[in-house]
Amino acid sequence: MLNNKSNNDRHHRLIGTPMNTSTLFVIVLSAFLLSACSHLDGLLKGSAQQKKIQQKVTFDLTRLDDDGLHGPADGKRSLSYEFCIPARVNTARQVMSIDPTAIVYHESPGRLQCGKEQYLVIGDTYQANYRGTLEKLVELEYVTRIQEAFFE
Fold first, then answer.
1. 82 burial class (0-12, 13-18, 19+ CB within 10 angstroms)?
2. Are 94 and 101 in contact (CB under 8 A)?
3. Three-state DSSP class for 111?
4. Secondary structure of residue 35 in the 3-state scheme
């Protein structure tokens, strides 16, 4: 019985002990720092992604609206882009799974002058989340440059 009482007292003391101000401050500060680190990590990843886009995408994305269109209000149009990929079926499939507008050309070099061991890919910004699509494409190691496509 005595042993049971001392266990209850110890339990009461641990749970019922009021937290002092410095302990509370340390807990709150730790939570804040963890939150800040998480937010900063997201910002750094975002800025790294932005840098990669700027390095690989040669056209100005800021001229496009949320729907991937540019031009005057009464004449908006989408922007077509082109890039080269290794001439392999698996890379073509990967690109087409990322970009639903992608058309792969096996024998056309395009303005980029894709080599004999490369396929030309032409995509379009008129698609849901065009920016997310471009972000995924620039993540592909074998996509080194995406430029605006012009048709004559």
1. buried
2. no
3. coil
4. helix
* Residue 80 neighbours by CB distance under 10 Å: 16
Task: Dump strand ranges (E) for the chain.
Answer: 69-70, 77-78, 80-86, 103-105, 118-124, 147-148
Unique residue bearing structure tokens 């995509």: 123
Q: Could you tell me the two tokens for 124? A: 């379009």
Tokens 């993540």 correspond to: 139
Predicted model pTM: 0.67
Q: Establish how many alpha carbons lie within 13 A of residue 71's alpha carbon, considering only the half-sphere containing its beta carbon.
A: 8
From CA 46, how far away is CA 26, in angstroms rounded?
30
Q: Which residues pair with 77 in a beta bridge?
A: 70
Side chain identity at residue 32, one-letter code: F
Give residue 54's pLDDT band: very low, low, confident or very high (50, 70, 90). Answer: confident
Structure tokens at 67: 């729907």
DSSP-assigned letter for residue 146: B
The 10s digit of each residue's pLDDT in 65-98 is 999 999 999 999 999 999 999 999 999 999 999 9
Amino acid at 137: L
Tokens 């009021």 belong to: 18
